[in-house]
Amino acid sequence: MPALESSPPILAEAGAQQRWFAPLRALVSAQRAGSLTRHCLLAWPVALLPSLALVSLVYGLLQWLGIDSSTFEPPPRRLTMGQVFSAVVFAPLVETLVLGGGLWLLSRLSHRPLFVAAASSVLWGCLHGASGLIWFFGTFWSFYIFSCSYLAWRPASWWRAYAVAAVPHALINLTAMGLLALQP
């Protein structure tokens, strides 16, 4: 496949192995075009919508099984401006720094970018799931997209890789905070 030979490693592996990574094609084509803004705006729904679907599926499955889903949720809290700032600004900035370091370490264990991204997303899902198990399902896919984005842009520059992971993360957290603010 000559078209894949010039592709970033993340796309070449996805195309060569014919997996379920089709959403990455649009993200990688935005990277190839050099459009940081386009990539961030595409990564936001590509990360958010499947995450919402996965959480909804898990809630539906728990309900179908007759299991009280509240036992898997973090304790309810009143939404404060400090929490909004922490979720929308602080967490994406700090977590993306840690994400970059984790991806660097995982890349030492494997040279397969999709494996590195998947391992990273499982770790991040577990970390977020420690607050409430249901959060694992809400963050697993999003962090997979953040990791793939970071890995795809890292050869261009660290700052760009950082931005394409942090900006969609902040937008997703802003969306979540907005949804929480709308709850009675």
Structure, described:
With 184 residues, this protein is mainly alpha-helical. The protein has one domain. Helix content is 78%, strand content 0%. It is built from 8 helices and no strands. Residues 1-8 and 14-18 have low confidence and may be disordered. This is Membrane protease YdiL (CAAX protease family). The chain crosses the membrane at residues 41-64, 84-107, 158-182. Keywords: Hydrolase, Membrane, Protease, Transmembrane, Transmembrane helix. GO terms for molecular function: peptidase activity. It comes from Roseateles asaccharophilus.
Q: How much of the polypeptide forms β-strand, as a percent range?
A: under 5%
Tell me the series of helices and strands, N- to C-terminal: HHHHHHHH
Q: Level of helix content?
A: over 70%
Question: Ends: how far apart?
Answer: 54 Å
